[in-house]
Amino acid sequence: MTKDILQMVREEEEQANRNRRRACIICPGAIGDCLLTLPLASLVRSAFDLGGIDFIGRTEYIDFYPGRTCIDTIKSLESIDFHRLFEDHRVFTVEDHDRLIGSFAAYEHIISFMGAGDVNFETNFIFTLNCSHPAEVTLLPLASSGESDGHVSEFYIRAYLQENQVPSTPPVFDAAACSLRAHAGDAQEGRRFLEALEINPDDHLAVIHPGSGGRAKCWHVDNFRQVARRLVCDGIQVLFLYGPVEMERMPSSVRQRLSDIAPCLSGGDLAKVLQVLTWADVYLGNDSGISHLAASLGKSTLAIFGPTDPRRYRPLGPRVTVLTPPAASFMQATRDDADCVYDAILRALGN
Asked: For the domain bounded by 186-349, which CATH number is listed?
């Protein structure tokens, strides 16, 4: 009995020590940028047997992470005085009990996608950390180097391993792994949203997001319209998703033409979008953050790429198909290109 009690005490102490060991990811990027850092975050967590990982970024892009990813806690970029770290390192100072010191005092490992290549940031950051404790700091660029022809998430892992020793053999990069898992209540909430739009979640549903943060990444909206119309004629439900960019950039007349074909969902945060996507049988979109979101959930994802390189930036997930219409017609309404995408959706649906 005494041995059992001692063993239990040791295990509790080990767990308490593990819980105190934390890492953080700092990423100023958008939805897709942040999601593509998660394979590295997962590797670091498992390799160092950490109690948790925090993610510091733009909260509107990451607030759904806790409980659905390997990330435990999120923090806002604006809550930390990062601008100070870009000051000339020759005049940079921190005071005793400085908030900047306290912002990083809890972390053993810090991976920053901010400040890579900036000598002032790196020098000031390391100086700030050393005011409280030594920590392992790795600065990585958000874009892979010109010499790399692999996926950017794989580039992050390779670059990290080149600079750091890990205590165990790291897993092989798996482009088909899911980095998102839905909450138990996500499907229920998604059903409620869809039924409010008179969509039956139990029937085939194609979710289409016709936008992207970059104009040049957007396949012509009339091509999406043609695809949606043919799907509806086949008895397949369609839902259009609009984000803030589409609501600002897309003329109301264009949105009206789409809503004449199928319901549209706009104004929701990313958690709501995720909840709706749990019911999607197939997703169609451009090279956009929402495409990365759908793929990371394991959804059958058709991502249309134009000027960006899908070898580096394609969405990660087990059921991703990248479509690359001809560059000459990418931003034009073209029946042949729309037909090819329509056929790809039918294949994804098993029709």
From this structure: 3.40.50.2000
